[in-house]
Amino acid sequence: MKYLWLYIVLLVVPGLALADPLPSWRDGASKTAIVDFVEAVTEVGGADYRTPGERIAVFDNDGTLWSEQPAYFQLLFAVDRVAEMAKADASIAKSPALKAAAAGDFPALLATGVKGLLEVVAVAHSGIDVAAYQAKVALWLEETRHKKTGKRYHKMVYQPMLELLSYLRDSGFKTYIVSGGGVHFMRVFAEEAYGVPPEQVIGSTGEASYKVIDGKPVIMKEPGIAFLDDKQGKPIAIDRVIGLRPILAGGNSDGDLHMLQWTTAGEGRRLGLLVHHTDAEREWAYDRKSHIGKLDKALDMAKADNWSVIDMKADWRVVFPYDLAE
Amino acid sequence: MKYLWLYIVLLVVPGLALADPLPSWRDGASKTAIVDFVEAVTEVGGADYRTPGERIAVFDNDGTLWSEQPAYFQLLFAVDRVAEMAKADASIAKSPALKAAAAGDFPALLATGVKGLLEVVAVAHSGIDVAAYQAKVALWLEETRHKKTGKRYHKMVYQPMLELLSYLRDSGFKTYIVSGGGVHFMRVFAEEAYGVPPEQVIGSTGEASYKVIDGKPVIMKEPGIAFLDDKQGKPIAIDRVIGLRPILAGGNSDGDLHMLQWTTAGEGRRLGLLVHHTDAEREWAYDRKSHIGKLDKALDMAKADNWSVIDMKADWRVVFPYDLAE
């Protein structure tokens, strides 16, 4: 029985392939749309077959792969960091927005509008080299807990989406993140949390400079936004970085509308997915009128463009990985 | 003899591995430096071992992977395209630089300086969507011949560098292009010529817009440079797109200096390669005083920073793939 292991492998491997790749998804239209799509594009000789090189899937991050309430988690980091900076040097809190952030006064900060928020983000994300910045993000993720759930932010990722990412990769897809979040911020946890390596994380970028300090080269994060990876910016970033049109796109807000439109308007079979936050009990419920992750026009377009709307409450057996263990 | 195939595989595979992966390279310091480096970082358990995820190699394109004389090939394309555009609409030739390009008068164009050249590049690379632009580049590459060699431009790639790219990929590396050339331009031929897929081509980018024309979304190329991937821009682009510091960098000019510095200043074993154009007979000979691909400061730094300088004339048995067949 020298080759017994071989027979075992031959018996077990097809069994694994037949097991449900999406156990946290309830049977229904969303799950069917996903499985049908993946089977169609991977069926060698089928009408919808795509080579592995063409199997590009792109996903928004905030509200699509992890939660985004009560505010984008990166914004919460920025506020905490400005507060920390202001402790060391109170003079940085020189505007209403920075003063509010330094005091941890979120309502006052929101009252300063988008301009104020961008100012806080700029200060929190500049004057530091990339490696030192990412060490600060890693420490913050480790030490900070979400006020509602009591969990670390990077544990508040969606179990069904983790299964979807794995299922796609097991089916020969490359899975990219294409998010309005900062690329340096997301890379700190994307590989561990999602299995997405640094070069498959696309995000907003700040200005940067290359400097040699004491003989050691560093990439410094500078004030100012170089590229905002949101709305029309998403297909533009996909074109610049990936250079191929994806065949699957997933998002949850009007900021993802153009990415889904760009993806699903291509020739051949395509899949657009919209995560609809319908679960006030296990997560949050919000859409057309939310100040974060507003889902309005994209929800209207979903029907005409045949995108699958994922009803979080109805379609997902569990929301977070830690719910599985409980 | 049911398992004969297995023994054949076991016998043949190590034989393939032992064959010279760089047959177009003459024995010498450059080849030794490359082979020693690759063996060191791939030796499991060795002091210099790197995981496949860390095996990132970046290469400049113009003058490093293909020729760049008498001028960057993309500039020659831009001049031809402006001439074509001016035939259809003479009013576009409204500046001395555009007039010179429209007339195919290269000396007059060069006399307009960098500003004039950028103007020609901007006009040639805008007002068209990405897919239509790339179709034009593909046609131009097919139809145009280099004045000195009589060959198609994308056939004027360096055989020894093709072998190096393959050797690295066979050794678990990801091979990236990081070039001052336009990302849309290079992607037209990079996969066929170098085996480098679209998402591993990093280059300069122009402004772009996302538009829906007659219900069909397109990415339009707009005037203006969004990012110049040269000098300090190269490590910045590597950080933004790849998010990891490469362990091998290859270039040929002062424009690559910062990329080589950034790569080789990292911890652990690193390799910097500089292609030195020393072969006036088979290719071109130029360095410190060249108007294209000036190699001056980087040549001085090579010794101190322990970069390998590749002497094209001495180190390469053949330069171009078509020399092999002749």
Can you walk through the features of this model?
The structure is a homodimer of 326-residue chains. The first copy, chain A, is of the alpha/beta class and 326 residues long. The first copy, chain A, has two domains: 19-69 and 156-325, Rossmann fold; 73-143, no CATH class. Chain A is built from 14 helices and nine strands. Chain A has helices at 4-18, 29-42, 73-88, 96-102, 106-110, 113-124, 130-143, 159-170, 183-194, 233-241, 257-264, 297-304, 312-315, 321-325, and strands spanning 56-59, 128-129, 174-182, 201-213, 216-227, 248-251, 271-278, 285-286, 308-311. In chain A, strands 1, 2, 3, 4, 5, 6, 7, 8 and 9 form a nine-stranded mixed sheet that branches. The mean pLDDT of chain A is 94. The A-B interface holds A 53, 130, 174, 183-184, 187, 197-199, 201, 205, 208-210, 212, 216-217, 219, 226-227, 232-233, 235-236, 239-244, 258, 261-262, 265 and B 53, 130, 174, 183-184, 187, 197-199, 201, 205, 208-210, 212, 216-217, 219, 226-227, 232-233, 235-236, 239-244, 258, 261-262, 265.
How would a crystallographer describe the biggest sheet of chain A? 9 strands, mixed
Order of helices and strands of chain A: HHEHHHHEHHEHEEHEHEEHEHH
Structural class of chain A comes to alpha/beta
Cα end-to-end separation of chain A:
43 Å
Q: Overall mean pLDDT score of chain A? A: 94
According to DSSP, the number of beta strands of chain A is 9
Helix content of chain A: 40-55%
Superfamily (CATH H level) name of the largest domain in chain A: HAD superfamily/HAD-like
Overall shape of chain A: it is: globular
> Which spans of chain A have pLDDT < 50 for at least 5 consecutive residues?
none
What proportion strand of chain A? 15-25%
Oligomeric state of the chains in view: homodimer
Instruction: Specify which chain pair forms the largest interface.
Output: A-B, 34 and 34 residues
Number of self-contained structural domains of chain A: 2
Q: Determine the number of helices of chain A (DSSP H or I, runs of at least 4 residues).
A: 14
What CATH calls the topology of the largest domain in chain A is Rossmann fold
CATH level 1 name of the largest domain in chain A: Alpha Beta
Radius of gyration of chain A: 21 Å
